[in-house]
Design brief:
368 residues; alpha/beta; TIM Barrel; 7-stranded parallel sheet; 4-stranded antiparallel sheet; 13 helices; 39% helix; 20% strand; globular
Length: 368
Protein backbone atom coordinates (compact mmCIF):
# COMPACT_ATOMS: atom_id res chain seq x y z
CA UNK A 1 0.00 0.00 0.00
CA UNK A 2 1.04 3.59 -0.52
CA UNK A 3 0.48 6.01 2.35
CA UNK A 4 -2.80 7.47 1.16
CA UNK A 5 -4.31 4.02 0.69
CA UNK A 6 -3.05 3.02 4.12
CA UNK A 7 -4.48 6.02 6.00
CA UNK A 8 -7.79 5.83 4.13
CA UNK A 9 -8.04 2.16 5.07
CA UNK A 10 -7.65 3.01 8.76
CA UNK A 11 -10.14 5.89 8.59
CA UNK A 12 -12.73 3.73 6.86
CA UNK A 13 -12.31 0.63 9.00
CA UNK A 14 -10.38 -1.46 6.49
CA UNK A 15 -7.14 -3.39 7.18
CA UNK A 16 -3.93 -1.54 6.20
CA UNK A 17 -0.65 -3.34 5.60
CA UNK A 18 0.95 -1.48 8.53
CA UNK A 19 0.18 1.25 11.03
CA UNK A 20 0.38 4.64 9.26
CA UNK A 21 3.07 7.10 10.36
CA UNK A 22 1.46 10.49 9.75
CA UNK A 23 2.86 13.69 11.29
CA UNK A 24 1.23 17.06 10.65
CA UNK A 25 2.86 18.52 7.57
CA UNK A 26 4.28 21.50 9.46
CA UNK A 27 5.82 19.28 12.16
CA UNK A 28 7.80 16.99 9.88
CA UNK A 29 11.42 17.60 8.83
CA UNK A 30 12.17 18.94 5.39
CA UNK A 31 14.71 18.15 2.67
CA UNK A 32 16.47 14.87 1.91
CA UNK A 33 15.59 13.35 5.29
CA UNK A 34 11.88 13.92 4.67
CA UNK A 35 12.18 12.36 1.20
CA UNK A 36 13.85 9.31 2.70
CA UNK A 37 11.06 8.88 5.24
CA UNK A 38 8.32 9.42 2.65
CA UNK A 39 9.96 6.82 0.42
CA UNK A 40 9.74 4.43 3.35
CA UNK A 41 6.03 5.10 3.88
CA UNK A 42 5.71 8.13 6.12
CA UNK A 43 2.91 10.45 4.98
CA UNK A 44 1.76 13.91 5.96
CA UNK A 45 -1.53 15.21 7.32
CA UNK A 46 -2.28 18.55 5.63
CA UNK A 47 -4.70 20.73 7.62
CA UNK A 48 -6.54 23.08 5.29
CA UNK A 49 -9.84 24.93 5.23
CA UNK A 50 -12.13 25.21 2.23
CA UNK A 51 -14.06 28.05 3.88
CA UNK A 52 -13.09 31.69 4.04
CA UNK A 53 -14.96 34.55 5.66
CA UNK A 54 -15.50 38.29 5.58
CA UNK A 55 -17.25 40.78 7.84
CA UNK A 56 -18.98 43.58 5.90
CA UNK A 57 -19.25 46.81 7.80
CA UNK A 58 -16.02 46.30 9.74
CA UNK A 59 -12.67 47.93 9.09
CA UNK A 60 -9.34 47.11 10.67
CA UNK A 61 -6.55 49.49 11.64
CA UNK A 62 -3.09 48.57 12.95
CA UNK A 63 -0.54 50.70 14.79
CA UNK A 64 2.99 49.85 15.85
CA UNK A 65 3.66 51.13 19.35
CA UNK A 66 7.17 50.34 20.47
CA UNK A 67 7.58 46.56 20.52
CA UNK A 68 3.84 45.90 20.33
CA UNK A 69 1.21 46.09 17.61
CA UNK A 70 -2.24 47.48 18.38
CA UNK A 71 -5.07 46.30 16.12
CA UNK A 72 -8.33 48.25 16.16
CA UNK A 73 -11.55 46.70 14.86
CA UNK A 74 -14.06 49.39 13.89
CA UNK A 75 -17.68 48.18 13.86
CA UNK A 76 -21.09 49.93 13.83
CA UNK A 77 -21.45 48.76 17.45
CA UNK A 78 -18.18 50.29 18.59
CA UNK A 79 -14.47 49.50 18.51
CA UNK A 80 -12.46 46.71 20.12
CA UNK A 81 -8.71 46.25 20.18
CA UNK A 82 -6.04 43.58 20.51
CA UNK A 83 -2.38 44.03 21.32
CA UNK A 84 0.45 41.64 20.45
CA UNK A 85 4.20 41.54 21.04
CA UNK A 86 6.59 39.69 18.75
CA UNK A 87 8.92 37.17 20.35
CA UNK A 88 11.27 36.17 17.58
CA UNK A 89 13.51 34.24 19.94
CA UNK A 90 10.90 31.64 20.88
CA UNK A 91 11.84 28.10 19.89
CA UNK A 92 8.26 27.02 19.18
CA UNK A 93 7.48 29.64 16.56
CA UNK A 94 8.32 33.06 15.21
CA UNK A 95 4.85 34.41 15.77
CA UNK A 96 3.66 36.66 18.55
CA UNK A 97 2.24 36.74 22.03
CA UNK A 98 -1.21 38.28 22.43
CA UNK A 99 -1.11 40.64 25.38
CA UNK A 100 -4.73 41.79 25.20
CA UNK A 101 -7.83 40.20 23.70
CA UNK A 102 -10.85 41.97 22.23
CA UNK A 103 -13.07 41.68 25.31
CA UNK A 104 -11.82 43.50 28.38
CA UNK A 105 -15.10 44.92 29.74
CA UNK A 106 -18.86 44.46 29.19
CA UNK A 107 -18.77 47.31 26.65
CA UNK A 108 -16.73 45.13 24.32
CA UNK A 109 -19.38 42.43 23.88
CA UNK A 110 -21.62 44.25 21.40
CA UNK A 111 -18.86 44.88 18.81
CA UNK A 112 -17.66 41.27 19.03
CA UNK A 113 -21.19 39.89 18.77
CA UNK A 114 -21.74 42.14 15.76
CA UNK A 115 -18.65 40.61 14.14
CA UNK A 116 -19.95 37.09 14.80
CA UNK A 117 -23.47 37.78 13.54
CA UNK A 118 -22.21 39.62 10.44
CA UNK A 119 -19.66 37.06 9.29
CA UNK A 120 -20.26 35.86 5.74
CA UNK A 121 -18.77 32.51 4.73
CA UNK A 122 -17.61 31.49 1.27
CA UNK A 123 -16.52 28.14 -0.17
CA UNK A 124 -13.27 27.61 -2.06
CA UNK A 125 -12.93 23.89 -2.79
CA UNK A 126 -9.85 24.54 -4.91
CA UNK A 127 -7.93 24.69 -1.61
CA UNK A 128 -8.64 20.99 -1.11
CA UNK A 129 -8.17 19.91 -4.71
CA UNK A 130 -4.89 21.79 -5.13
CA UNK A 131 -3.51 20.44 -1.85
CA UNK A 132 -4.59 16.88 -2.66
CA UNK A 133 -3.02 17.16 -6.11
CA UNK A 134 0.26 18.49 -4.74
CA UNK A 135 0.66 15.87 -1.98
CA UNK A 136 -0.58 12.99 -4.12
CA UNK A 137 -0.31 9.56 -2.48
CA UNK A 138 2.09 10.91 0.16
CA UNK A 139 -0.53 12.54 2.36
CA UNK A 140 -4.11 13.23 3.30
CA UNK A 141 -5.91 16.59 3.35
CA UNK A 142 -8.10 17.28 6.37
CA UNK A 143 -10.65 20.07 6.26
CA UNK A 144 -11.46 22.30 9.24
CA UNK A 145 -15.07 22.01 10.29
CA UNK A 146 -14.67 24.87 12.80
CA UNK A 147 -12.34 27.73 12.00
CA UNK A 148 -10.61 27.65 15.38
CA UNK A 149 -11.16 23.89 15.76
CA UNK A 150 -13.06 24.30 19.05
CA UNK A 151 -16.69 24.12 20.11
CA UNK A 152 -18.52 27.46 20.39
CA UNK A 153 -18.06 27.64 24.18
CA UNK A 154 -14.32 26.94 23.98
CA UNK A 155 -13.94 29.22 20.95
CA UNK A 156 -15.04 32.25 22.95
CA UNK A 157 -11.70 32.12 24.79
CA UNK A 158 -9.98 33.73 21.84
CA UNK A 159 -11.86 37.00 22.31
CA UNK A 160 -10.33 37.41 25.76
CA UNK A 161 -6.79 36.57 24.63
CA UNK A 162 -5.33 33.07 24.49
CA UNK A 163 -2.06 33.93 26.20
CA UNK A 164 -3.20 35.97 29.19
CA UNK A 165 -6.98 36.09 28.97
CA UNK A 166 -7.98 32.81 30.60
CA UNK A 167 -8.74 34.36 34.00
CA UNK A 168 -10.74 37.19 32.40
CA UNK A 169 -12.73 34.63 30.40
CA UNK A 170 -13.49 32.69 33.59
CA UNK A 171 -14.42 35.77 35.66
CA UNK A 172 -16.74 37.11 32.96
CA UNK A 173 -18.76 33.88 33.03
CA UNK A 174 -19.44 34.53 36.72
CA UNK A 175 -19.64 38.33 36.74
CA UNK A 176 -21.39 38.97 33.40
CA UNK A 177 -23.38 35.82 32.62
CA UNK A 178 -25.92 37.59 30.41
CA UNK A 179 -23.24 39.06 28.17
CA UNK A 180 -21.23 35.85 28.12
CA UNK A 181 -24.19 33.62 27.25
CA UNK A 182 -25.10 36.00 24.41
CA UNK A 183 -21.54 35.66 23.13
CA UNK A 184 -21.73 31.84 23.19
CA UNK A 185 -25.07 31.94 21.40
CA UNK A 186 -23.68 34.22 18.69
CA UNK A 187 -20.61 32.00 18.28
CA UNK A 188 -22.87 28.94 18.01
CA UNK A 189 -24.98 30.52 15.27
CA UNK A 190 -21.83 31.54 13.42
CA UNK A 191 -20.36 28.03 13.64
CA UNK A 192 -23.58 26.41 12.51
CA UNK A 193 -23.69 28.62 9.41
CA UNK A 194 -20.16 27.46 8.67
CA UNK A 195 -20.97 23.79 9.25
CA UNK A 196 -23.87 24.00 6.79
CA UNK A 197 -21.20 24.65 4.13
CA UNK A 198 -18.52 22.29 5.43
CA UNK A 199 -20.86 19.34 5.10
CA UNK A 200 -20.38 19.59 1.32
CA UNK A 201 -16.57 19.71 1.53
CA UNK A 202 -14.79 17.37 -0.91
CA UNK A 203 -12.78 16.08 2.08
CA UNK A 204 -14.39 13.31 4.10
CA UNK A 205 -11.98 13.92 7.02
CA UNK A 206 -12.76 16.88 9.28
CA UNK A 207 -11.17 18.48 12.34
CA UNK A 208 -14.02 18.86 14.80
CA UNK A 209 -13.28 20.08 18.30
CA UNK A 210 -10.43 20.58 20.71
CA UNK A 211 -10.15 19.36 24.29
CA UNK A 212 -7.48 21.18 26.30
CA UNK A 213 -8.41 19.93 29.75
CA UNK A 214 -8.65 23.43 31.23
CA UNK A 215 -12.12 23.02 32.73
CA UNK A 216 -14.08 20.29 34.44
CA UNK A 217 -15.95 17.45 32.82
CA UNK A 218 -19.12 18.93 34.32
CA UNK A 219 -18.49 22.16 32.43
CA UNK A 220 -17.71 20.19 29.27
CA UNK A 221 -20.96 18.24 29.55
CA UNK A 222 -22.97 21.41 30.16
CA UNK A 223 -21.51 23.74 27.53
CA UNK A 224 -19.81 21.56 24.91
CA UNK A 225 -21.18 18.04 24.78
CA UNK A 226 -24.62 19.05 23.40
CA UNK A 227 -22.91 20.70 20.42
CA UNK A 228 -20.94 17.52 19.65
CA UNK A 229 -23.98 15.30 20.09
CA UNK A 230 -25.96 17.48 17.67
CA UNK A 231 -23.40 17.88 14.90
CA UNK A 232 -21.23 14.76 14.96
CA UNK A 233 -24.11 12.42 13.98
CA UNK A 234 -25.24 14.86 11.30
CA UNK A 235 -21.78 15.07 9.77
CA UNK A 236 -21.29 11.32 10.02
CA UNK A 237 -24.62 10.75 8.25
CA UNK A 238 -23.19 12.88 5.42
CA UNK A 239 -20.13 10.63 5.14
CA UNK A 240 -17.74 12.73 7.21
CA UNK A 241 -15.17 11.43 9.71
CA UNK A 242 -14.81 13.80 12.68
CA UNK A 243 -11.53 14.13 14.60
CA UNK A 244 -11.37 15.51 18.14
CA UNK A 245 -8.02 17.06 19.08
CA UNK A 246 -7.13 15.97 22.64
CA UNK A 247 -3.81 17.40 23.75
CA UNK A 248 -4.59 16.65 27.39
CA UNK A 249 -1.73 14.75 29.03
CA UNK A 250 -1.54 14.52 32.82
CA UNK A 251 -5.29 14.53 33.45
CA UNK A 252 -6.70 12.70 30.43
CA UNK A 253 -8.17 10.11 32.79
CA UNK A 254 -10.74 12.67 33.91
CA UNK A 255 -12.04 13.04 30.37
CA UNK A 256 -11.86 9.56 28.86
CA UNK A 257 -15.58 8.85 29.35
CA UNK A 258 -16.82 12.21 28.06
CA UNK A 259 -14.56 11.89 25.00
CA UNK A 260 -16.39 8.68 24.15
CA UNK A 261 -19.72 10.49 24.61
CA UNK A 262 -18.86 12.98 21.83
CA UNK A 263 -19.22 10.18 19.28
CA UNK A 264 -16.27 11.31 17.17
CA UNK A 265 -14.61 8.73 14.93
CA UNK A 266 -11.03 9.88 15.52
CA UNK A 267 -9.33 10.95 18.76
CA UNK A 268 -6.07 12.59 17.83
CA UNK A 269 -3.17 14.08 19.77
CA UNK A 270 -3.50 11.34 22.39
CA UNK A 271 -0.08 11.19 24.08
CA UNK A 272 0.83 7.92 25.83
CA UNK A 273 3.17 7.60 28.84
CA UNK A 274 5.74 8.69 29.87
CA UNK A 275 4.16 12.06 29.05
CA UNK A 276 0.47 11.16 29.24
CA UNK A 277 -1.29 9.54 32.16
CA UNK A 278 -3.20 6.81 30.30
CA UNK A 279 -1.78 3.82 28.42
CA UNK A 280 -2.95 2.87 24.95
CA UNK A 281 -4.87 -0.19 26.29
CA UNK A 282 -6.66 2.07 28.78
CA UNK A 283 -7.85 4.55 26.18
CA UNK A 284 -8.71 1.75 23.76
CA UNK A 285 -10.93 0.22 26.41
CA UNK A 286 -12.60 3.60 26.96
CA UNK A 287 -13.09 4.53 23.28
CA UNK A 288 -13.50 1.14 21.62
CA UNK A 289 -11.83 -0.65 18.74
CA UNK A 290 -13.86 1.27 16.13
CA UNK A 291 -12.32 4.61 17.17
CA UNK A 292 -9.22 5.72 15.31
CA UNK A 293 -6.60 6.61 17.93
CA UNK A 294 -4.10 9.03 16.38
CA UNK A 295 -1.07 9.09 18.67
CA UNK A 296 1.08 12.11 19.33
CA UNK A 297 4.42 10.35 19.79
CA UNK A 298 6.08 11.41 23.09
CA UNK A 299 9.38 12.74 21.85
CA UNK A 300 10.96 12.66 25.28
CA UNK A 301 11.57 9.00 24.45
CA UNK A 302 14.11 10.15 21.84
CA UNK A 303 16.48 11.22 24.61
CA UNK A 304 16.88 7.56 25.59
CA UNK A 305 18.43 6.84 22.21
CA UNK A 306 17.38 5.31 18.91
CA UNK A 307 17.34 1.69 20.09
CA UNK A 308 15.20 2.52 23.12
CA UNK A 309 12.87 4.51 20.86
CA UNK A 310 12.53 1.56 18.50
CA UNK A 311 11.70 -0.82 21.34
CA UNK A 312 9.26 1.69 22.84
CA UNK A 313 7.45 1.96 19.49
CA UNK A 314 7.26 -1.81 19.06
CA UNK A 315 5.89 -2.19 22.59
CA UNK A 316 3.36 0.54 21.84
CA UNK A 317 2.20 -1.25 18.70
CA UNK A 318 1.98 -4.57 20.51
CA UNK A 319 -0.10 -3.04 23.30
CA UNK A 320 -3.01 -2.48 20.90
CA UNK A 321 -4.85 -5.49 19.52
CA UNK A 322 -3.99 -6.32 15.89
CA UNK A 323 -6.50 -4.80 13.52
CA UNK A 324 -7.45 -1.91 15.78
CA UNK A 325 -7.56 1.47 14.09
CA UNK A 326 -4.29 3.19 15.00
CA UNK A 327 -2.12 5.99 13.60
CA UNK A 328 1.24 7.27 14.89
CA UNK A 329 2.12 10.89 14.28
CA UNK A 330 3.31 14.20 15.66
CA UNK A 331 0.52 16.64 16.47
CA UNK A 332 2.14 18.96 19.00
CA UNK A 333 5.89 19.50 18.59
CA UNK A 334 7.62 17.59 15.81
CA UNK A 335 11.14 18.62 14.85
CA UNK A 336 10.74 21.91 16.73
CA UNK A 337 12.62 20.12 19.52
CA UNK A 338 15.78 20.31 17.41
CA UNK A 339 17.54 23.54 18.32
CA UNK A 340 21.14 22.70 17.37
CA UNK A 341 23.10 20.08 15.43
CA UNK A 342 23.28 17.64 18.35
CA UNK A 343 19.55 17.72 19.10
CA UNK A 344 18.74 17.57 15.39
CA UNK A 345 20.75 14.34 15.11
CA UNK A 346 18.94 13.00 18.16
CA UNK A 347 15.51 13.80 16.78
CA UNK A 348 16.29 12.44 13.32
CA UNK A 349 17.55 9.23 14.91
CA UNK A 350 14.35 9.00 16.93
CA UNK A 351 12.08 9.56 13.96
CA UNK A 352 14.02 6.97 11.98
CA UNK A 353 13.63 4.54 14.87
CA UNK A 354 9.85 4.96 14.74
CA UNK A 355 9.91 4.10 11.04
CA UNK A 356 12.21 1.13 11.70
CA UNK A 357 9.82 -0.16 14.37
CA UNK A 358 6.76 0.15 12.15
CA UNK A 359 8.52 -1.69 9.35
CA UNK A 360 9.97 -4.27 11.73
CA UNK A 361 6.57 -4.93 13.26
CA UNK A 362 5.57 -5.89 9.75
CA UNK A 363 2.26 -6.90 8.32
CA UNK A 364 0.04 -7.54 11.29
CA UNK A 365 -2.93 -9.91 11.33
CA UNK A 366 -6.37 -8.35 11.30
CA UNK A 367 -9.20 -9.63 13.46
CA UNK A 368 -12.37 -10.42 11.57
Amino acid sequence: MDFRSRIQAVLHGQPPDQVPFAPYDNLAPRGDFERELRNRGMGLCLRRSTIWSEIPGMSVETRDEGDTTLTIYHTPKGDVTTRIRSHLGRISDNASVELEGMIKSPADYDPVIYMLESTHFHVDNSVYYNSARDIGQDGIVRDSALDCEASPYAATRRYFGYEFGLETWIYHQRDHPGHFNALVDAQTRRDERRLALVVDSPSDFLAFGWLEGLWSTETFRKYELPFYQKWVPYLQSSGKICALHCDVTKNLGRYKEVIAETGVGVVEAYTPPPVGDLSLPEVRQAWGRDTVIWINFPETVFWSGAEATRHYTIDLLKSDNPGNRLVIGFTEVGLWGAIDEASERLFKAGITAIMDAIEGYGNYPVHA
